[in-house]
Write a structure and sequence with these properties.
The protein has 1 helix and 16 strands. It is mainly beta and 242 residues long. The protein has a 7-stranded antiparallel sheet, with helices on one face.
Length: 242
Amino acid sequence: MATVFHVSGFYRGAQRMLGPVLEAGIMTSNTSTTITDANKGWATDQWAGHLVVHIRPSGFRVVRRILSNTANVLTLASAGITQSTPGDLYVIMPGEQSPKAQMNVLVRSASGSLGAGETTTPVTGLWWVRLAVIRLNVTTLGLPDADDEVDFYIQTSYNEGTTWADLENIHFSNANNGQTVSKLLVVGGPQSSAVARNETDGTLADNTKNDLPLGDRLRIKTAVTGATAPVYAYSAEAALYA
């Protein structure tokens, strides 16, 4: 009978046995120098320099340093991962050069001039993050008319991307026409509250922050209003801390 693993439970157990765990998953394939998990959507080189532990059902473990990664493939600095059958487990742990378990990820590379809203590709695998500092760099704001507006919704998900929740709406209007702006948003644990928080997706009020923690993924959704199609350009990155 096939062994069935539940990643969330395994992740918690690995934390207790191995120490700080940044990511966990189930291999869909591997070679001696690569691990593939088709269910992931990592940022390029998000895990470079960290350590990966290959754990087989027998309990046998192999540790290797990660040289680089794509959206769903880890490339290792040296061979040694045992050829496995799909379903073997792995965990990613902090490398020696990152003892505080901190990393920077690109949320949105520098855009060209945009005249419509967009949704960025989510950065996933963030369940280990306890604090995030998100930097939004807006390099173009062409909002010449009174009704021109651009909204940047910083969003997360608590159900693996089925639905999305606004963390903050950073709003720009005609008053910001021609400006270059950098904004910092800190996302940590929520404050306790007797009032339930509304879950919104691209509808949070202008310049409002929801008191919610970061889920397992992060993205930005933008929205543009204005009869003469205002334009904007931006990039975004996040510093993540365990």
